[in-house]
Amino acid sequence: MLHAEGLAALRGERLVFERLSFAVPAGGALLLVGPNGSGKSTLLRLLAGLLRPDAGRLTWGGEDVLADPQEHAARTAYLGHLDAIKPGLTAAENLRFWGTEAAIATALAAVDLTRLADLPARMLSAGQKRRLAIARLPLARAALWLLDEPTLGLDAKAVGRFGELLALHRAGGGIVIAATHLPLPLPGAAELALV
Amino acid sequence: MTRLLARELRLSLRHGGDTLAALLFFLLVAMLFPLAIGPSPETLGRIAPGIIWVAALLAALLPLDRLLAADLEDGSLDLLLLSGLHPATLAAGKAIAHWLVTGLPLLLCAAPLAIMLRMPDAAIPALLLGLLGGTLVLSLLGTAAAALVLGARRGGVLMPLLILPLAAPVLIFGAAAADAASADLSPRPHLLLLAAFLAFTLPTSLAAAAAGLRGAAEN
């Protein structure tokens, strides 16, 4: 489980947030809510280990995550604002780095992109690119999913399928932490309000 | 690591134009010298190692601009840093990919170019051996510099200013090896110094690149 204690982050000279404490148990979910600029994305990058906290401690199963950043990175799957999709590669090739052929086929089926697997990613619409980025989450086989506005641009059907992925991940003991302004299919999620 | 290399090479092949541009630049720059200096074999043969070395150095700089910046802009860099690979391993993968896509083709084109510039046949092996080490050093230095200027405005301008002074020893020993071989002297000491420089660059540039990548993610 993930445990944060008194986290604080500075961006430049500005204090984004301080004294942030929360715990997420295995199979749990946490929704980060708050107005634009309240530090939701900063907190997600901090939880991923991409940023260092300026104060406080972040532990996973009792161990400080900064003690072994590579190990923390390996158990983290991060979906940022940007889709990180290379337009020149096909949908399936974009995932090749993250898993085996069979796993990629399953992941593409989970986001309903099987039909478009061999299409160059530049031909995909914004929502389809988002779905392709989402397909990377199960491929990473990570226990901690950090999602930044994951459903931006998705239609209702795709959000439903994304809900199934989230439920499957949580049923396996995975943790989901998501920042969003849109309703997410995360039943029983705790909320953390940033101001 | 193999997956990272496969990804980089697939991307380079798909953007074949960028890959070919560096090679064509190398050939064209080297071909401009006979036009400017005149085709006299004595003059050309004398300065051929210098021409090839400077042209290779400049050509190797061209693709560095996009080597890491493209991944930063589309968010891939965050994901690569979170893939569980150490940032230094990531940098090593990028450097190897840069060498395979830019350094190796330059090396392959250098021999016909040397013949065209009337370099003595005996000097060509020394030139190629020097270029082998030299292009490796350039890929390493280039990856480090590309990582360090990540996120900086006008990073593309800053990068050659960082790399060129550091690459000076490569140029000196590499061209000297070919010159020595042209003059029937042993190129061995120059090549050994070049190899020593490569051994020094390998750990230092990977450490610098790793720090640069981590810093870029924090911004």
Task: Report the order of strands and helices of chain A.
Answer: EEEHEEHEHHHEHEE
Assembly category: heterodimer
Q: How many domain regions of chain B? A: 1
Q: Can you identify the CATH superfamily of chain A? A: P-loop containing nucleotide triphosphate hydrolases
CATH topology of chain A: Rossmann fold
Order of helices and strands of chain B: HHHHHHHHHH
Low-pLDDT runs of 5+ residues of chain B are none
List how many beta strands of chain B DSSP finds.
Answer: 0
Work out the largest interface and the residue count of each chain.
A-B, 28 and 22 residues
Q: What is the count of DSSP helices of chain B, taking H or I runs of 4+ residues? A: 10
Class based on secondary structure composition and strand pairing of chain A: alpha/beta
Shape of chain B: elongated
Secondary-structure blueprint:
The complex is a heterodimer of chains A (195) and B (219).
Chain A: E1 2-11, E2 14-24, E3 29-33, H1 40-48, E4 55-60, E5 63-64, H2 69-74, E6 76-79, H3 91-95, H4 101-110, H5 126-139, E7 144-148, H6 156-171, E8 175-179, E9 190-193
Parallel strand pairs in A: 3-8, 3-9, 6-7, 7-8
Antiparallel strand pairs in A: 1-2, 1-4, 4-5
Helix pairs in contact in A: 4-5
Chain B: H1 2-14, H2 16-37, H3 41-61, H4 64-67, H5 69-73, H6 76-81, H7 87-116, H8 124-148, H9 155-182, H10 188-218
Helix pairs in contact in B: 1-7, 2-3, 2-7, 3-7, 3-8, 3-9, 7-8, 7-10, 8-9, 8-10, 9-10
